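Protein modeling request. Please complete all fields; requests missing the sequence field cannot be processed.
Requester role: graduate student
Desired output: 3D structure, token encoding
Chains: 1
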Amino acid sequence: MHSRTYVPALAATLTAAVGLLGGPAYAQADAPADQPLAARVVTYDAGASAEFRAAVDRGAAIWNESVDNVELRPVAAGQSADIRVLADNGWPRALTTSLGKGTVYIGRQAVNEGYNTVRIAAHELGHILGLPDRKPGPCTSLMSGSSAGVSCTNPYPDAAEKAEVEDDFGAALVHPSATAQRQVMTVN
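Delivered output (188 residues):
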């Protein structure tokens, strides 16, 4: 995973903004300027992903290797997950309820047609992380989905996709209301 660093300018800006709004204007005295900024943890439950469990775990790991502001973790036993991952016989799709929350379906139809399971998992998790489909698109774009063709096995987001997730989750760390409820069904 990337190292998460706290931008000192952001601290100064936030401190000044709070002071202007009439709140207490102080910085955390015991926090060094380069203190790591905690990533937003988004949990997933792949218990119902059947034969795609390893692909889902690898897709989550790819996102964790690629971005700093969000971390995908398997849900702890007895807890409810932000993302549910299910296997079904349809086409892969994601139903997003808000940034970092929703349901992913790893559809066997695409797998039976020859699409790569890790690419499918990473792509659908990308929707939950706020990314839209970008079709048609090249294989280098994870969010190009099926338009890149069956031969495309690239499960990694490109630089623009990484930056968009970083921006969305960076804003969510600073402004928690940025994760307002929305419901989007994405069928690939």
